[in-house]
Amino acid sequence: MSYHFSKRLNLPFDQAVTGVIEALKREGFGVLTDIDVRATLKAKLGEDFRPYRILGACNPLLAHRALQLEDKIGTMLPCNVVVQEHPGAGVEVSAVDPVASMQAIENPGLAEVANEVRAKLKRVVEGL
């Protein structure tokens, strides 16, 4: 089982980021964190890196349900969505598969929430 789903886009990087954020909103997610890996690596290490953003997405209703079922689930929140540029190969969007990341937790209710989140994130990525 893969731990993510991905899709390549033929869009400029910034346009792809905006499109991902809009698609997440349509599925009830907000972006709680936005890590610009390129800027961080340049500032902290002086290293050049390709455009790479990690968007920490959260659907409040589903996060609340999950937290009620498992108090340590916050270690897996928010759900990360990566937008990265591959030189000469366009932009790739990848979202974590919450079902894969929660396999070790034996909680049927939590598995149901993870499946709902997975479905929403798959719709986001596939709809781009």
Q: What is this structure's SSE topology?
A:
Elements (H helix, E strand, L loop, with lengths): L3 E6 L3 H14 L3 E7 H9 L6 E7 L1 H10 L9 E8 L3 E7 L1 H4 L6 H19 L2
Antiparallel strand pairs: 1-5, 2-3, 3-4, 4-5
What's the CATH architecture name?
A: 2-Layer Sandwich
Domain count: the total is: 1
Mean pLDDT: 96
Total strands: 5
The CATH class assignment is Alpha Beta
Structural class: alpha+beta
Q: For the largest beta sheet, what order do the strands appear in spatially?
A: 1-5-4-3-2
Poorly predicted runs: none
Indicate the proportion of strand residues: 25-35%
Number of helical stretches of at least 4 residues = 5
Give the termini separation.
Answer: 23 Å
* Estimated helix fraction: 40-55%
Short key terms for the protein model shown above:
five-stranded antiparallel β-sheet, 128 residues, 5 helices, alpha+beta, 44% helix, TATA-Binding Protein
Give a structural overview.
The chain is an alpha+beta fold. The chain has one domain (4-126): TT1751-like domain (TATA-Binding Protein, 2-Layer Sandwich), CATH 3.30.310. The chain contains 5 helices and 5 strands, in the order βαβαβαββαα. The protein has helices at 13-26, 37-45, 60-69, 98-101, 108-126; strands at 4-9, 30-36, 52-58, 79-86, 90-96. Strands 1-5-4-3-2 form a 5-stranded antiparallel β-sheet. Helix 1 packs across helix 5. The mean pLDDT is 96.
